[in-house]
Amino acid sequence: MLSHVSLGIADYERALAFYAPLMERLGLRLRFAEPDKHWAGWTASDGSRPIFFITRPFDGDAPAPGNGPMVAFDAPDRATVDAIHAMVLEMGGSDEGAPGLRPHYNPDYYGAYFRDPDGNKICVVCHSPTEPQAARR
């Protein structure tokens, strides 16, 4: 159901020192830690998703509700990402990023971003390629 959950932080080292032992205690493994990008993420040891990660807000502003915190829902295909994005805009949501590939995250990351009427940032993402692996070689 979930792809990833992020929380905005102001101080990477302090946040990492807090979350690393907490995640270890929960049995989650550190999947990545990139101090130069000010982010780190954890996942269950037996799977690749969902990922919980901490990060400084990408826009450089201080973390605040809706500026760093985001819930991302895993979609079964790209058509679902497109349909949900259109639907939420019709229901009063605001666009935060049209559906499309974000290859800087990974080659098959196809997502759309929006805010609900209360300003909460939400993502819907499909991680599957459009063609079978055998056809991509």
Describe this structure in words.
The protein has 137 residues and is of the alpha+beta class. It contains 3 helices and 8 strands; from the N terminus they run βαββββαβββα. The chain has helices at residues 12-25, 78-90, 133-136; strands at residues 2-8, 28-34, 39-44, 51-55, 70-74, 94-101, 110-115, 121-126. Strands 2-3-4-1-5-8-7-6 form an 8-stranded mixed beta sheet, covered by helices on one side. A hairpin with a 5-residue loop joins strand 7 and strand 8.
Set down the secondary structure blueprint.
Blueprint: E1 2-8, H1 12-25, E2 28-34, E3 39-44, E4 51-55, E5 70-74, H2 78-90, E6 94-101, E7 110-115, E8 121-126, H3 133-136
Parallel strand pairs: 1-4, 5-8
Antiparallel strand pairs: 1-5, 2-3, 3-4, 6-7, 7-8
Question: What Rg is obtained from the alpha carbons, in whole angstroms?
Answer: 16 Å
Q: What's the average pLDDT?
A: 87
Spatial order of the strands forming the largest sheet: 2-3-4-1-5-8-7-6
Task: Note the total helix count.
Answer: 3
Specify the helix fraction band. Answer: 10-25%
SSE string: EHEEEEHEEEH
> Termini distance?
29 Å
Oligomer: single chain
- Backbone shape: globular
Counting helices, strands and paired strands, the structural category is: alpha+beta
Beta-strand segment tally: 8
